[in-house]
Amino acid sequence: MEPDSKPSTNGIIVQILCSLLACSAILSPGMNMGYSAFALKYMRTQLHLSTDQETWIASLSNLVTPIGCLLSGPILERYGRKFTLILVSVPCSIGWFLMAFEPTLTRIYIGRILTGLATGLASTPGSVYAAECTLSTLRGYLMSGSTVFISLGILVVNVLGLVFKDNWQIVAAIGGGVSLVVAFITLIFVPESPVWLVTNGYESRATKSLKTLRGTSRTQVIQKELSAMLANKRKAVAHAQGNMWSNLRRPEAYKPLIILNVFFLFQQLTGIYVAVSYTLDFVKDSGVTKDIGFIAVLLGALRLGVIFLGTCCSKTLGRRFTAIVSGVGMTPCLLLLAFDRYQNQIRVQPDAPNFNSPLFLATNLTSSSLLNTSLSSNVTTTLAPLVNITLPSVAGQAAAGQTSWVPLAAIILYIVFSTFGFLIIPWSLLGEIYPAKCRDVACGITACLAYLFNFAMVKYYPYMSRSIGSYGVFCFYGIMAFIGTIFVIIFLLVRKVPAL
């Protein structure tokens, strides 16, 4: 329930700033998600890593993130939103500093595990805080703050990678410093959620917090909103009573559970998070060979901008329509990349004859019975340079194909379309597609499965690339994008969920 009086400008500003600060707790974990994209390039030579070790460094964070997700809920309810936001910095900063100072392979593994745990811990509290502390006119936009800060973290680490290049330890130290700074600012300036305070009996502190967030000291207005918060919380608790697992067996619960989990599976099978964890390798595999570091930064900036666009479009045009546009756009981009890589593979086949080779020309000329040995030698000597000038070599064509606009345009459009819908829509559906009585457990199951899918795709991407080639990988992603789009068209009918 909102106050009767018109919201004050100061109150709106405070709500926006506090919500953004709360969501910024996931900035450093977001940097962790993109860290392996540039660091592996230098780690593999400096630490002499095997392919298996590289894949563990890239994917370990995703393996333990579900544990952080499961821990986040109970900690939020028991110790409060502000405490959880600050707690994120403990494993996050320790993990970063383990990778920054005197790193060994074991320390890097432990660091990735701790930063992955922090990612899970930070996945919920920012959005919960924004939902509980802001007016309804601001709530829908500020609840997307966590997604924005994840993408901002990925962009920041790509920029730092471009600046510091092989000094990946400095970037890790900066990541740890960012986590501590955000925690300190949160401790000083962010008030606790009044909803949590009033629910746990801290009414005087809740009154003070709400006065700060609303920018008013009018006791009557504050007390009215606090009473509404308490009534809504009691209603939600009473509504959630019952056996959640038995509720999951009802069609109103298990159908959206299956649909959303399959949607998350297609999200991963289209390579969206592979492009985050292996940005440099992913861009290189697409056929782009020049200015890869700059292109990685460009893709990060595009991803951040498209998140804003996709969020607005999903609210005005609907999530289903936005997801369909995303899938329809992704599919041709990925198939075009697959076709371009396949053509390049044909051009650079080692067994293919090089018609510009003087040896090839000499062999064919000398095999003719119409020319003697002397004449064939002269013709070879005379024509070979001419042929090499007038006809571009096959190798030259391959190189030109690698730096052409086709793979660059395709990879940029792929990032735009994939971020527009398939990246953001599944996460935005988590809080609204499940019935209230089983929402907590259903969200936990879905988040855990999503990160496990993520781990599998990131872990085995290098092996896929080696076994079926880059054209095979992009073809697989394109086919999955097509099937995923058909799935969305048929099954993703987002309606108001029943109360159950």
Word description of this protein:
With 500 residues, the chain is mainly α. 80% of the residues lie in helices and 0% in strands. The chain has helices at residues 9-23, 27-46, 51-79, 81-87, 89-100, 105-121, 125-133, 136-142, 145-164, 168-189, 194-199, 203-214, 219-239, 244-248, 251-269, 274-277, 279-285, 292-316, 319-347, 358-366, 373-390, 394-402, 405-423, 425-429, 439-491. Helix 12 crosses helix 13. It comes from Diaphorina citri. It is a multi-pass membrane protein.
Task: Note the main attributes of this structure.
Growth Hormone, Chain: A; 2 domains; 25 helices; 500 residues; mainly alpha
Low-confidence stretches: 352-402, 496-500
Determine the CATH superfamily of the largest domain: MFS general substrate transporter like domains
Helix % is over 70%
Oligomer: single chain
Output mean pLDDT: 81
Cα-to-Cα separation, first versus last residue = 23 Å
Characterize the biggest β-sheet.
none
Secondary structure elements and pairings:
Layout: H1 9-23, H2 27-46, H3 51-79, H4 81-87, H5 89-100, H6 105-121, H7 125-133, H8 136-142, H9 145-164, H10 168-189, H11 194-199, H12 203-214, H13 219-239, H14 244-248, H15 251-269, H16 274-277, H17 279-285, H18 292-316, H19 319-347, H20 358-366, H21 373-390, H22 394-402, H23 405-423, H24 425-429, H25 439-491
Keywords: Membrane, Transmembrane, Transmembrane helix
Domain Major facilitator superfamily (MFS) profile: 18-496
Protein name: Facilitated trehalose transporter Tret1
